[in-house]
């Protein structure tokens, strides 16, 4: 099957569980034989974007879907950026860098423990936020986001990346989203070389 066909979900055709099942099946096909996280995450970001567009509200109101990757997992391309002058313990925590995504431009880096993404990365557990306006320390990359789900991708017990999905409506995510996105995170952890 051509890769472009993987993103066809047909608007309104299927329950959330059916669409997520298709996402997982299509993701398995897209990552088959490819161990590079850049390639795999790029295709899966597109897959998620098209899947959410096919679902009824609030899922169809997803306005960002993508990944942040731990900085040391990026290929070394040249000189290391200069360290920040801030010598606090927070500055010594690992950093997530923006990876493949669909949506508006986003924050380039997030420290472990900061915002929803950094909290999920540091705790190594999924964080579902029904209303980001009520999440202390929320980092607003897009002011139209109202709810968020962040799922860590773990390799050997460490967070190597996170799946981040934002919705323009409150209460955009539930236990069903958590279940399937955690399955996707496990698939990506196993199918990429970290």
UniProtKB/TrEMBL annotation:
Cellular component GO terms, alphabetical: cytosol
Molecular function as annotated in GO: L-methionine-(R)-S-oxide reductase activity
InterPro entries linked: FRMsr_CS, GAF, GAF-like_dom_sf, Phosphatase_reg/MetRdx
Residue ranges of every copy of the GAF domain listed in the record: 98-189
Pfam family, one: GAF_2
Signal peptide coordinates: none
Superkingdom of origin organism: Eukaryota
Family named by the database record: Belongs to the free Met sulfoxide reductase family.
Descriptive protein name: GAF domain-containing protein
Phylogenetic lineage: Eukaryota, Fungi, Dikarya, Ascomycota, Pezizomycotina
